[in-house]
Amino acid sequence: EMNYTKIGDLTSYKETLEDKDGNSIQRERTGILYNDKRSQISYFEKEVSSDGQALIRDWNASGYNSEGRLSGYTQTTLTNEISMTQTVSGITYDKLGRQSGSVEQTQIAGTNDQGERVGGKMTVTTVRMDTVLGADGNITGYTDSVQTRGWDRDGSLVRETDVIRARSNVTATGYSEDSLTMGQDGDIVLYSQ
After folding, report:
1. Which residues pair with 109 in a beta bridge?
2. 41, 32 contact by CB (below 8 A)
3. Of the residues 78, 100, 131, 177, which has the maximum number of CB atoms within 10 A of its CB?
4. Do 13 and 1 form a contact (C-beta atoms < 8 A)?
5. Per-residue pLDDT tens for 152-175?
6. Quick one: pLDDT at residue 115?
7. DSSP letters for 95-116
């Protein structure tokens, strides 16, 4: 079931998704709103799986750039035990309109299946450092910097990694990748190439 505005913008829908084993998810998205340029600015979604697990999602755009591309959003997801809020800002795009950078902040709080309090915060900052263009003007390579910082529920820094990722020979079907990872994830010190 789908509902539209008079000018054809989707305002709500219901669907059932089923995998090959017969497990299903019933999804209902409502309150789909648009700005004056017909770009989506918010929605509310509820999913219920065939085993009775429920998930609620509230999504809101924080803005669009001058080309009409999403520049950021906030999404809050709730289950019976956990709440997760993800705020994405500073979204950048390459010349082909593909996302090339952003700052993602994720905060989680709640209780796990054993009834223990869980929580934490993570920030992932991605920056496009370099783009290589072929003779035809298409992107044939790029280098990204990905910085990750994570804190446990008590505010202690538990993850601090930096990754430099260089992709070359970029085509419609694939690419080659080299990466350098440095930092610490819990008690594990990382340095790999």
Report:
1. 83, 119
2. no
3. 100
4. yes
5. 999 999 999 999 999 999 988 999
6. 87
7. TTS-EEEEEEEEEEEEE-TTS-
Residue with tokens 């669907």: 15
Question: For the chain, how are helix, strand and coil distributed in percent, rounded to 5?
Answer: 0, 75, 25
pLDDT tens digits, residue range 60-114?
A: 999 999 999 999 999 999 998 999 999 999 999 998 888 999 999 999 999 988 8
Cα separation, 28 vs 25, whole angstroms: 10
Burial of residue 99 (number of CB atoms within 10 Å: 0-12, 13-18, 19+): middle
| 3-state DSSP assignment of residue 5 | coil
**Could you identify the residue written with the tokens 């990754």?**
163
On the 0-12 / 13-18 / 19+ scale of CB atoms within 10 A, 88 is: buried
Looking at the DSSP bridge assignments, the partners of residue 160 are 149, 184
Residues 34 and 46: beta-carbon distance below 8 Å: no
Q: Answer for the pair 42, 67: CB distance below 8 angstroms, yes or no.
A: no
Q: Dmax of the chain from CA atoms? A: 59
